[in-house]
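Trying the structure run again after the queue cleared.
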Amino acid sequence: MSAELTGRERLSGVLLHVTSLPSYGGVGDFGPAAYGFVDFLAAAKQRLWQVLPLSPTGYGSSPYSALSAFAGNPLLISIERLAHDNWIAWDRIGGLPSHNGPADFGEAMRLKLPLIEEAAGNFLARASNEERGRFQKFCNDNISWLPDYAMFNVLRRRFGYVSWIDWPADLALRKEDALTAALHDHGHELALEQVIQFFFSEQWSSLRAYCAERDIRILGDVAIFVNYDSADVWTNPEIFELDEERRPIRVSGVPPDYFSSTGQRWGNPLYKWGVLKERGFDWWVARIRRSLALYDSVRLDHFRGFEAYWSIAAEEETAVNGQWVKAPGQDLFQRLKDVFGDLPFIAEDLGLITPEVDDLREYFGMPGMRILQFGFSDRGSHLYLPHRYVPNTVTYTGTHDNNTTLGWWRDDATEAERRNVQTYLQTVSHDDDIVWAMIRAAARSVANLCIFPLQDVLHLGSEARMNVPSAGEGNWTWRYHPNALHPDFAAQLAALMEMSDRDGYVPPKLPEGGGNAAQPGSSV
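Done. Tokens:
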């Protein structure tokens, strides 16, 4: 991992998921809007772009509800770039949704995805030898997951998108004869799926290179658990807690707390950590290797689950009757450290965190997270305020799961929280003042890294919230307006970054004997 992301340098960045870009085609993607956003980051002297998982999504279009922990989401492929590269004619893409309005995943699946498949077919028909060579190298480099993911996607479509457990038994159980027959019957479709992943890789790599040229790095996101209905569980049932029919025995969640009397039953299958440990955590090594091929550093979602996780019997309807089970986090991260060296991880350690979780994070030098919105309710919440930070910390005004700062202030903050904000920040005389006050507090803190959701940079309210965790629908759809990135926002951020030493400025080396250099205020 590059030195500037190890916590030894003061940096700042912006949180924006790719789907929130105002791209042509219904959802944000790797097209022109993404490059325009990178230019905005550079102008604002931001050094980091944080994204949510880039995985293909299942039900609800949540990036945390993925069909694969390894593959890329085809909807993030820019149809404009495919047209520019001559894989599809410009006149074929004219009927796609515009750049404006919320992300519409359904329309993108219906209108955009078939065009991406058409472009993949054109690639197979007329790619040059050099292009075929790049494609073959991509396939060889990703052979550990790509063929299985392609087969999963083809079969999922063939059987009407039902869960893999409801496919014919010989395919659900991955019988060799059945898979061989499917390979023979669906060869062209399988090739298309692999080309689509190649398109994803090529476009994302180009965008990352554009970021790197502007000294901007990518912070990605890895969810601790995977979906039951995923290529990962279908392909690797032996590492999950499944019964003989390959149905979950125990599932994930969190226990009852102040926010929910029944807890949260997430429903992901749990790992057989003993089996993974015996195998040298091979699946996790492969997963992190793939993540580090996509990102410069990684946020580990639900970090506390690597120390102990809440285990719920699959037949339970709520999380009430679960139990804490120890996880081999120490052994896992030591194995990852042995393979990759310094671990480029940020630990999402929000919520009720035990000393054992803190010890695990600190042993491996991972920065934890602090959310300013959480700091104003009572004395116990003060650990989220800047005076309690240590340098090895990542501070946020809010995250993708929170309301925007302006939305929180207007719609969610209690009277006590509003009084405490006034006491602590002292500069909130108007609703719009709260946003910049919080951004300043984060930037001026000792935390080596601070990150602002783009909604806060743009001073947007509750209408721009990305996710309400308890809501079953309506999440993940926010996109900013194509004209929203006004230069004044960039200039305001850039000035603050200079004054808070987060702009990447490296002072010139003093000449030998430089101890005699003039100091501010001295006469020469």
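The longest helix spans residues 187-213. Worth checking whether this holds up in the mutant runs.
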